[in-house]
Amino acid sequence: METIAEQSGIFPKLNVEEEPELSATEVESMCMSCQENGITRLLLTQIPFYKEVVIMSFSCDHCGYENNEIQPGGEIAPKGVEIQTTIVTARDLNRRVVKSDFSSIRIEELDFEIPAQSQKGEVTTVEGIIDRVIRGLDQDQPVRRIQHPQAAEQIDTFITNLQTVKELERPFTLTITDISGNSFVENLNAPHKDPAITISHFQRTKEQNHLLGIFTHDEVSEEPKNAVEEAVKLETVAEEVDSLLKPIREGAWPLEELQGEVLQFQTDCPECAAACDTNMKVTTIPHFKEVVIMATVCDNCGLRTNEVKPGGGIEELGVKIEVTVRGKIDFARDVLKSESCSLHIRELECEVGAGALGGRFTTIEGLLTAMREQLVESTGMFMDSNDVETKDRMDKFFGQLDAAIAGSKQLTIVMDDPTGNSYVQSLNDDGTPDTALRIIRYHRSYEQNEELGLNDMKTENYGEESTDNAGKGDC
Question: If you ran DSSP here, which 8-state letter would residue 13 be given?
Fold first, then answer.
């Protein structure tokens, strides 16, 4: 219990009222400018509505050199992120940006790119990113004009182009690509969708995972010299070894009993990293399909999460479900939302992306409550420094959403799932149409199939391509 308490206290919350004196760790370290000793201050804290971070500040009393940076202290996101932002007005230049060490930044109109790991992570603005580039290019120009006048002239021209971009003589596009998924650009229209920002997530390659220090078990384990040694190792492993997942012996668990059994395995809490248990159960939703429900409860911090995975594959057609929430009569509808399902509330012009809420099995009321919590987390990081207009817009939006959750405002929720694995319960059990529920099946677009990885999937005649390639090699 002492170990768990220590783990939960590593990243105290950044709250001045509750923690008036957050202690920073001071470490003596060498200055990169004059090679004398300076002081590095480390503060491990948790930014409200964001994540755990490590804030670092270095200062040298000998030469006056100072450096500040921020690094994520939590887990690496499961996918990388690419954020494209169109900068048109001075307000766009003030968009706040959180970038990690693994972020590459590109200005499309200038064909200019800042490579990943060339700068430290920081909390800044779009204008701050451009100013930092200008300072970096201009710092050695006096010497460069003497030693390499031609290169200095080209750099001067490029600095002029950057100044022109910053003065917004024409719009430009800023693209941040972060393989760690820990970058963020402020949404000026929150909680509504920002038309100037396009966010897409991507699966990391093996090389990118290695760059982040992520390796699979097979990659870090030693390969056996031959198949005989591997078979010997497998035979010498005792059945009583306490492994995470144990194979089910043939005939030990009939399918009917497996569906009625709640399986349990140990995992780490995503909030405080303490050991906790995750319960998993295979069940069948009436009039729909088989699903796997997982629930985690942490005794240390009280975190409760639930997640649902479809038991079958991707359906042939995508599905769009429109449900009219007239009041508390519709709150009890069962809802299955898959990981690929996006949500849209028409009356509030609010849209939540596919990966925001994850897969879950809940009710309409639970879905609205989860959407509210998600929007608070995604928009609340800079809530204390927003302007009056933004605060008024947010207060008005959350007031309308709270009225809907209280059952006093009618809403239309649209669930769009290209995999076809989402479901909303009908209130009419006698087979008659539910007037508040509309279900539309549609054919996926090429882009949707590409995002789901279906365009490259081969389901028939698997050996043809390898046979053809082998034949070509023999020739």
Answer: B
Terminal alpha carbon distance of the chain: 68
For residues 383 and 374, give the distance between their C-alpha atoms in angstroms, rounded to a whole number.
14
Q: Are strands 184-185 and 96-99 parallel, antiparallel or unpaired?
A: antiparallel
**Mean pLDDT per 10-residue interval, the chain, length 475 residues:** 40 50 77 88 67 80 84 74 90 87 88 85 86 87 87 89 88 91 82 83 85 76 52 46 48 54 78 80 70 82 75 82 87 85 85 75 86 70 61 81 84 90 83 85 87 73 55 48
The CB density around residue 173, as the number of other CB atoms within 10 Å, is 14
Tell me how far the alpha carbon of residue 341 is from its chain's centroid. Answer: 15
Q: What is the DSSP string of 384-426?
A: GG--HHHHHHHHHHHHHHHHHHTT-S-EEEEEEETTS--EE--
Residue 243 CA to chain centroid, in angstroms?
Answer: 30
Amino acid 226: pLDDT: 53
Neighbours of 382 (CB within 10 A): 17
What gap in Å lies between CA 23 and CA 43, rounded to an integer? 7
Q: Check residue 224 and give its pLDDT.
A: 47
The pair of structure tokens assigned to 444 is 């996926």
Tokens of 21: 């004196």
Tokens of 241: 């070894």
Name the DSSP class of 383.
G
- Give CA 155 to chain center in angstroms: 37
